[in-house]
Amino acid sequence: MKALLLAAAALIAAPAAAETVAITNARLAIGDGSAPIDGGTVVMRDGRIAAAGSGVAVPAGARIVDAQGKWVSPGLVAGFSRLGIIEVDGVSQTNDASAGRSPFNAALDVAPAVNPRTSAITLNRAEGITRAVVAPESAGSIFAGQGAVIDLGADMDAVTKARAFQFVEFGESGAAQSGGSRAAAIATFRNALAEARDYAAGRRHEDALLPRADAAALVPVVNGQMPLLAHVERGSDILQALALKREFTSLKLVLVGATEAWTVADQVKASGVPVIASALADLPASFEMLAATQSNIGRLKNAGVTVGIGMINDDEARQARLIKQYAGNLVALGKIPGAAGLDWGAAFATISSKPAEAIGMGGEFGSLKAGRRADVVIWDGDPLELATSAVAVWIDGVEQPLRTRQDKLRDRYRTAGEGALPKAYER
Amino acid sequence: MFSKKFAIALLAGLATAACTTAESKPRTASSSSSTAPRQMPSKDPFPSTYRAYPGVPTLVTNVTIYDGEGARIDKGQILFADGKVVAIGQSVDAPQGATVIDGSGKWVTPGIIDIHSHLGDYPSPAVQAHSDGNEVTSPVTPQVWAEHSVWPQDPGFSRALTNGGVTTLQILPGSANLFGGRSVVLKNVYARTMQGMKFPGAPYGLKMACGENPKRVYGGRNQAPGTRMGNMAVDRQTWAKAQEYRRKWDKYEKDGGDPPARDLAMETLVGVLKGDILIQNHCYRADEMANVIDMAKEFGYKVSAFHHAVEAYKIADVLKANEICSALWADWWGFKMESYDAITENLPLVHNAGACTIVHSDDANGIQRLNQEAAKALADGRRIGIDIPDEIAWTWLAINPARAMGIADKTGSLKPGKMADVVLWNGNPLSVYTRPEKVWIDGALMYDALDPKRRPVSDFELGQPGEGDVK
């Protein structure tokens, strides 16, 4: 009964304020690609990382959390997700990813649809995911709309940055969304950006195809104020996307998916375009993924490309927690002759600093460097290992509740049989 | 349909006739209806032509062994030769000239068995022309056989072998239909034909499905079933027909006369009622599984395994009492309403209740990491105090699926005399940092991470970008 009251109190309590916390005696992964260090300290103050490393002083008055040698890392970043906009994919009323019957596309802004109480937010927070790139899904246009960056905190203020990027489909999907061919997708894209420029200049031609709201939404894209995340898989399609960046020189292009990017790694590197890639896609699942291999990310990294992990068409509404396993698998590849694996630090960076850098927010989160948002996780083991779980999570310096609906179901059915009363009375 | 077995019987009959014409009158079917041979349909019209590839006697030493039935040997040895496991133990006698592999720091397990795969019937690339997993023209299609959809060139077979250590897999029809059709069990060895991959002597399964899929697909066409009660009604009516069909054939078998007209759908169902064909039942919710269990009792058949069964943990005691296995994911959840209550402790909770548990994939990617799925579930169990040893958890990947597929006498563990379906892992196979190093099927080395020539490349991938690459 007492536990019940405490739980109820926790539910209705206002979010705790960011406190000054020092986590000491940590096996510390900074998230910047470096190897973990033992005996490290992380200091959080005013919701930001004040310092992290070995030999860091604990400020007076800080709450000290002794990690007792446990792993401590930045909270993980879902580099491509649909967290917070879908409760159950198959229940359309709870699925705000796409809007096939809307007259708008590029103008759609995913931020107002984000529900911080989505089950997937709670569940992934409990597994150490603290920030997510949230993309709308295209339906009826190559432009899916404007994505957001969110935190996974247990409060009603989830959106870190609204209208953080525009999401566009090229390749097979783009072709299907624009009338039936890749040529149509490229023509649609060129026209849309031209209309955005016209709109910005106060011109509007009589034959304009885009609703004004869509044209307006593309102005920051063509001006380079808003990143453009482009889903593209095939080697030749990647080169076409890079060509568009040469044509629209201000574009802040980010490749998403990019299964065959390793086949054109030098060109990707030369373009300076970062990549949010599928980690373990190794099947020729479509004709635009014939060269799929789990070595894609390793080969891109070796070529000098900034590359993080995203989940593209891969349970992206719910399973961001799997990025830990994905990164661990990239380490395992290192033992296979002919494969391109990652060392531990580089693998961890693909789910922390690299996706943040890819969308231009590496200064805000994704590592424990001073000044970053204080998203911190204590783990009961190597965070990339299958048996490890998060034991404490801070977001913006606020310690988070980790109990999920699934935990409650588990506890109710710890023994299957009914007790003195039906299961419905057990909680 | 003219079966090979029937053809052989006919040839034998002709030979006898040729030798005996002088002595006896030709007999006709009507001359003695109670003693004339019955024209029973062939049970194996598409027989396996699988042949094990040659291997060499192989001894792995200094290796950690999980035997697949729950036993563990540290710094042990395993010998296999002529396609069979010969001996496992702390040390075993090996013949002169056996290939010796130092397994220090490595693990040996039986090859992983995936009881739920759609490789071949939903192959890569996933283009419409390849979509052969659901016969969505009727909710009741027990007459279709997944083996007739299997494309043996699916690149997914190679990934399951090289990244997953999968040596045996059951290919199921999809779950759009209440009765989806027969499954086929394959050895994970590329062949030119499905028959060349077919697991010799494995029983057929029948895929059934509960819940949202059938009622959505057919209800959406304003056709039965449109509800869960409709699902059960169509199921029960179909089983009742199968009982009637069985009576006709039993009578013919007993009394002779004209054989009844064959009904391929009913033949499959009678195979289930006779216990020859195993029910593999897609079902998510606890309450629906309970309904299916009662239906199976009503019509006198047994469910071998519930597949997906995300709510198995709610009725683990019932599943144990009814001796039904649960084939589960580690952590899939929430993609549709009936998967909403999935929890990551499903496997350990059901195991802990004493019921049979299996890790399955239902996915061309997941099949490459079934060992990792087991590891995640195992760890989540331990976190709530269910401390299952690693070697016991390996039964989820080995003997348990073998039992639920009716092949436990042939594979699924490293018991001497069984098929030498063996994986050498380059570390602890329940770690994310481990991959298969070598995979033997029937004692033949079919994958070697250290030898690019022992890496299969399907016809489809020949001449394509990435041909022969490490995947």
Summarize this structure as a short list of keywords or feature phrases.
heterodimer, A: 427 residues, alpha/beta, Urease, subunit C, domain 1, TIM Barrel, 8-stranded mixed β-sheet, 12 helices, 22% strand, globular, disordered N terminus, B: 471 residues, 6-stranded mixed β-sheet, 11 helices, 17 strands, 26% helix, 20% strand, Amidohydro-rel (chain A), Imidazolonepropionase (chain A), signal (chain A), hydrolase activity, acting on carbon-nitrogen (but not peptide) bonds (chain A)
Structure description:
The complex is a heterodimer of chains A (427) and B (471). Chain A is α/β, with parallel strands linked by helices and 427 residues long. Chain A has two domains: 95 residues, Urease, subunit C, domain 1 (Roll), CATH 2.30.40; 290 residues, Alpha-Beta Barrel (TIM Barrel). In chain A, strands 1, 2, 3, 4, 5, 14, 15 and 16 form an eight-stranded mixed β-sheet that branches. Chain A has an eight-stranded mixed β-sheet with strand order 6-7-8-9-10-11-12-13. In chain A, helix 3 crosses helix 4 and helix 4 packs across helix 5. The N terminus of chain A is likely disordered. Chain B has 471 residues and is of the alpha/beta class. Chain B has a domain of 298 residues: Metal-dependent hydrolases (TIM Barrel), CATH 3.20.20.140. Helices cover 26% and strands 20% of the residues of chain B. Chain B is built from eleven helices and 17 strands. In chain B, the strands form three sheets. In chain B, strands 1, 2, 3, 4, 5, 15, 16 and 17 form an eight-stranded mixed β-sheet that branches. Chain B has a six-stranded mixed β-sheet with strand order 8-10-11-12-13-14. In chain B, strand 11, helix 6 and strand 12 form a beta-alpha-beta unit. In chain B, helix 4 runs parallel beside helix 6 and helix 8 crosses helix 9. The longest helix of chain B is centred in the middle third of the chain and has 28 residues. At the A-B interface, helix 9 and helix 12 of A face helix 7 and helix 9 of B.
